[in-house]
Design a protein that fits this description.
The complex is a heterodimer. By secondary structure, chain A is an alpha+beta fold. Chain A folds into three domains: 10-314, no CATH class; 321-430, no CATH class; 442-504, Arc Repressor Mutant, subunit A (Orthogonal Bundle), CATH 1.10.10. Chain A is built from 17 helices and 15 strands. In chain A, α8 (350-358) packs across α9 and α14 packs across α16 (470-480). The longest helix of chain A has 20 residues, at 244-263. Chain A is elongated and about 95 Å long. Chain B has a domain at 1-48: Histone, subunit A (Orthogonal Bundle). In chain B, β2 (83-84) and β3 (87-91) form a beta hairpin. The chains are: A alpha+beta, B mainly alpha. At the A-B interface, β2, α2, β8 and β9 of A face β1, α4 and β3 of B. β9 of chain A pairs antiparallel with β3 of chain B.
Chain lengths: 505, 98
């Protein structure tokens, strides 16, 4: 194999090519039981403890459809402004792979339950309409673990192990039409779309939407065409993209890789590629089988689904508010500027701020901590804000400690560090690490006296009325107390001390 | 509907069936005959008859979202050709690597 051409610089790639995106998002529904059988869907159970003849595909077993899963699929379709099919059916997608014990996946092919929808997402103030091709019902596959080899990847593995607990868990797959015209914003558009879906699905309450646990998964298709061309280029499909950040990174990488190939006179191969979070690269997976190779045919064991129009209308009326509308009234209620609200929604902090406010913190304070201290932490740890090991209640507790004067903002940062490091709840951390502000007492008074003794000239100037010189002494006291002082209280103490000294002298 | 030897060979490959040349030749003829028979159905189909994909005129056969008992884990794992760490052990998966 000849060495791959170098990646092209992203800006140069965008000067030469227009990217076209296609996003396939798999949503694991949060039903109690599986799609076609009564096995539990609970996450984290002992391997292979939640299987039965239906989800293992044993001879003679018959599937029966989960009504709640159908209801969730319809609600998702309605929220994506889709048409709901008056009648649709399931199909068998035939392939051999150890994660699918039945040797076929029960899916929908020519008759999806939801089709032709659209949503609008916003990137840097620009509204982008994303057309939804379809949203269909299907089932999840089992979970593979690769043994041997250095990285737990399939390449170089000695053998593989299977847990079928996830086989048969209900999925809804949401497929976009080609997204054109996003230009250099394409990676951000993809991220914004998946973030929009995540917020929408959470509002609908149909899924846990935990990307890191795989309950929301995105396959990102991208192709490049020379600028001004109208015919789509050859696409690749990148899998294993399991965070919002990775979607953006993976697409930037694929765009640069494809552009490098094309500029060097090569051709893009239509294939599935795997994203590697650690190296920030993609590598080829199995070459994409042609659609007809799956030999889809109507599933004979499941009757067609013909949703009662009254049922659909009732579900439509019961839909929760769409995330953009909700954000708009929350912004008004909280009194945030548009820029402040963009920080919150763009950073995935909206629900966290809502919960922090509900736990008693002022909106501005909740916003401040989630978009600064905690966003920084999440960013350097490379995780989503949602996955930060600190709850909204704990953030509200830190703010309450500030409001009560127990700690100040500076100490709060140390409390955050300790809580994030798993050292306990804020109050416990303050107690255990002795972080409370010394607003009174002998330690504070002694520190003030030491500062005055160390800097007699400064003290003298203050005695002579140059009160602004007090800053130097406050700074020393703060350093002495390792930040545990309350600046206003220290200032007052210093002035009291110097004034009383004057009277006595 | 003329089915070629290559069509049948490809289908056999997709179905993971290893067929000898003699078997292939025989199946081409047999499958062709079956397809011709099925094709005759289209002569009966008219514009008024919707395509049938199910034998029974049923829709919306659904159950409530209620958890029922799964098989005992030991019984499930007893069906596996090999077991490791409570999981089905399968040989190295080929054809997936770069």
């Amino acid at each position: 194999m000849s060495p791959a051409p170098a990646l092209l610089d992203f800006d140069r790639a965008m000067a030469l090519f227009d990217p076209a995106l296609g996003l396939e998002v798999h949503v694991e529904l949060n039903t109690r039981s599986k799609m076609f059988c009564g096995c539990s869907t609970e996450f984290g159970a002992e391997p292979n403890s939640q299987t039965c003849p239906v989800c293992l595909g044993l001879p003679g077993s018959l599937p029966v459809l989960n009504r709640r899963a159908v209801e969730s699929a319809i609600r998702i379709g309605l929220a994506l402004n889709c048409s709901i099919a008056s009648q649709c059916r399931f199909a068998r997608k035939n392939y051999f792979y150890p994660d699918m014990p039945k040797d076929f996946q029960t899916s929908q092919y020519d008759e999806p339950i939801c089709h032709d929808g659209r949503v609008t997402v916003e990137v840097e103030g620009r509204q982008i309409v994303i057309e939804i091709e379809r949203a269909h019902m299907e089932e999840d596959a089992g979970k593979l673990v690769h043994v041997g080899g250095s990285t737990g990847r399939i390449q170089g593995a000695d053998h593989s192990l299977l847990d079928y607990n996830r086989a048969g868990v209900p999925l809804v797959e949401i497929v976009t039409k080609p997204i054109l015209g996003a230009g250099a914003q394409a990676p951000q558009v993809a991220r914004a779309y998946v973030a929009y879906l995540r917020d929408l699905l959470r509002a609908l309450g149909v899924s846990d939407v935990r990307m890191e646990q795989g309950s929301l998964r995105c396959d990102a298709n991208v192709s490049l065409m020379p600028r001004g061309a109208t015919e789509l280029g050859t696409r690749t499909e990148t899998k294993n993209v399991n965070s919002l950040r990775s979607i953006e990174r993976a697409l930037r990488y694929e765009i640069r890789r494809q552009a490098g190939l094309l500029v060097a006179g090569g051709r893009v191969k239509q294939e599935t590629r795997h994203w590697h979070e650690d190296s920030g690269t993609t590598s080829p997976g199995r070459s994409k089988e042609q659609a007809e190779d799956y030999r889809y045919f109507p599933e004979p064991d499941l009757a067609p689904v013909a949703p009662d129009p009254e049922w659909v209308e009732r579900l439509r009326l019961e839909l929760p508010e769409a995330p953009p509308q909700r954000a708009a009234w929350l912004r008004a209620e909280w009194g945030f500027t548009e820029a402040e609200m963009r920080d919150v929604t763009g950073g995935g902090a909206l629900d966290l701020v809502v919960r922090t406010v509900a736990a008693g913190a002022a909106p501005a304070a909740a916003r401040k901590w989630w978009t600064t201290e905690l966003a920084r932490w999440a960013n350097s740890a490379g995780v989503e804000l949602e996955a930060v090991p600190m709850t909204a209640e704990q953030v509200a507790e830190v703010q309450a400690l500030i409001d009560q004067g127990v700690i100040n903002d500076r100490l709060a940062r140390r409390v955050f560090e300790a809580v994030l490091a798993g050292q306990g709840d804020p109050a416990a951390v303050v107690r255990d690490l002795g972080l409370a502000v010394l607003s009174d007492g002998s330690a504070l008074r002694q520190a003030v006296q030491r500062a005055i003794a160390d800097q007699p000239e400064v003290a003298q100037r203050i005695r002579q009325g140059k009160v602004q010189a007090v800053g130097a002494l406050i700074g020393q006291v703060m350093r002495d107390l390792r930040g545990r002082g309350d600046a206003a209280a220290i200032r007052q103490l210093i002035l009291d001390e110097l004034t009383s000294g004057q009277e006595a002298g | 509907m003329a089915l070629s030897r290559d069509d049948v060979a490809k289908l056999a490959d997709l179905a993971r069936l290893e067929l000898t040349e003699t078997e292939l030749e025989r199946l081409v003829g047999q499958l062709d005959l079956i397809l011709t028979a099925v094709d005759s159905v289209s002569q009966a189909a008219t514009a008024e008859v919707a395509p049938t994909s199910h034998a029974l005129a049923l829709v919306n056969v659904m159950r409530d979202d209620v958890v029922t008992a799964s098989l005992p884990r030991e019984a499930v794992l007893a069906m596996a050709p090999a077991v490791e760490d409570g999981r089905f052990r399968v040989p190295r998966i080929l054809g997936e690597s770069a």
